[in-house]
């Protein structure tokens, strides 16, 4: 990897590790729907002009059904569920649960494409990863918060499904055009629900800063950097950021929000990480299920 490749890699590992912290801050004063609206509208305002100027929107028209499907599973539902879940779960725990995305991607790949053989090593990885999720949830979540865990589970399924849609149904389309369109469609869909929920008084500077960073840095700039990273080091190496994002989320949650660092979190994340590596080895398509646009929280 070149110096530029390492710089892009480090930037993405951090940029897609901090949204969990920022979402936790933002939902203290904003509803999940209003946060989704502000984030997607901000990202769309920045990315749509770039996509339009480069002719990246028109090629999407014949594939509009799959673009909408990608939007639903990748942005519209996951970002709402993630925001709602973080009203009850810590940011660090949420980030660690999302680390299960490669495991879910491996299962979906196997279920939807029978020619992708699940050998004993990859099967063992799935088992280890599932045990890791059980440890993470069992030692860190109370019974009353299981609904929030379920929401994060649905987010992980969506994040694992998105790249499969991209790879199989939209492989030749400009990625920035797809992302910009997804953000715009989500903002339009949420506007009728979210606008009445916006606070009547200006939120605190802390929340405004969190929303601004989410929209500008973690969405618009992040996608541009991620696609630059793919161009620099290739799609397989680029997906390795998946394994660093939850660690960044854990570190920030513990240090900045004083969230607890438990044995269950460390052991569970370690097992999920090992299981993900084993379950997705020797398959670039599976690796793509852990990152690409789907690793963006």
Salient structural properties:
14 helices, 297 residues, single chain
Could you tell me the number of beta strands? 0
Shape: globular
Instruction: For the record, give the distance between the C-alpha atoms at the N and C termini, rounded to a whole number.
Output: 26 Å
Structural Rg: 18 Å
Low-confidence stretches: 283-291
**In percent terms, what proportion of residues is strand?**
under 5%
SSE layout and pairing:
Layout: H1 3-15, H2 19-26, H3 32-53, H4 64-85, H5 91-98, H6 101-112, H7 120-138, H8 146-169, H9 175-194, H10 205-233, H11 235-238, H12 245-256, H13 263-279, H14 284-288
Describe it.
The chain is an all-alpha fold and 297 residues long. 72% of the residues lie in helices and 0% in strands. It has 14 helices and no strands. The longest helix has 29 residues, at 205-233. Mean pLDDT is 87; it is low at 283-291.
Structure in a nutshell:
With 297 residues, the protein is mainly alpha-helical. It has helices at 3-15, 19-26, 32-53, 64-85, 91-98, 101-112, 120-138, 146-169, 175-194, 205-233, 235-238, 245-256, 263-279, 284-288.
């Amino acid at each position: 990897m070149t110096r530029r490749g390492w710089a892009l890699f480090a930037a993405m590992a951090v940029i897609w590790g901090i949204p969990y912290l920022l979402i936790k801050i933002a939902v203290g004063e904003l509803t999940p729907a209003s946060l989704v609206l502000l984030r997607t509208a901000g990202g769309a305002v920045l990315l749509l002009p770039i996509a339009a100027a480069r002719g990246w929107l028109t090629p999407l028209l014949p594939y509009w059904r799959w673009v909408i499907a990608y939007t639903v599973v990748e942005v519209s539902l996951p970002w709402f569920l993630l925001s709602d879940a973080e009203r009850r779960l810590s940011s660090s725990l949420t980030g660690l649960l999302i680390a299960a995305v490669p495991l879910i991607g491996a299962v979906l790949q196997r279920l939807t494409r029978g020619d992708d053989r699940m050998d004993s090593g990859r099967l063992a990885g799935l088992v280890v990863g599932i045990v890791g999720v059980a440890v993470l949830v069992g030692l860190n979540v109370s019974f009353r918060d299981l609904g929030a865990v379920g929401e994060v589970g649905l987010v992980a399924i969506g994040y694992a499904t998105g790249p499969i849609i991209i790879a199989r149904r939209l492989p030749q389309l400009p990625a920035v055009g797809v992302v910009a369109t997804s953000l715009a469609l989500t903002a339009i869909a949420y506007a009728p629900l979210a606008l009445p929920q916006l606070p009547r008084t200006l939120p605190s500077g802390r929340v405004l800063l969190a929303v601004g960073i989410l929209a500008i840095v973690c969405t618009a700039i992040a996608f541009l950097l991620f696609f630059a990273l793919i161009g620099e080091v290739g799609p397989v190496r680029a997906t390795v950021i998946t394994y660093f994002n939850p660690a960044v989320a854990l570190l920030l949650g513990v240090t900045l929000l004083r969230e607890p660092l438990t044995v269950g979190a460390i052991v569970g994340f370690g097992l999920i990480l090992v299981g993900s590596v084993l379950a997705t080895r020797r398959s670039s398509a599976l690796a793509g299920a852990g990152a690409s646009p789907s690793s963006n929280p």
